[in-house]
């Protein structure tokens, strides 16, 4: 008798967590590069 007690897929939750962290991180890196170029190029 095969047991069907595998945990539910959490793919959506993982994708949401990556977006929750990745979006502000990407924005912060964008702003960092933008301001660093302004600082060094005048």
Automatic annotation (TrEMBL):
It comes from the Bacteria. This is Oxalate:formate antiporter. Keywords: Membrane, Transmembrane, Transmembrane helix. The chain crosses the membrane at residues 12-30.
């Amino acid at each position: 008798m095969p047991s069907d007690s595998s945990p539910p897929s959490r793919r959506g939750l993982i994708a949401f967590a990556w977006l929750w962290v990745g979006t502000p991180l990407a924005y912060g890196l964008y702003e960092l590069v933008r301001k660093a170029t302004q600082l060094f190029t005048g």
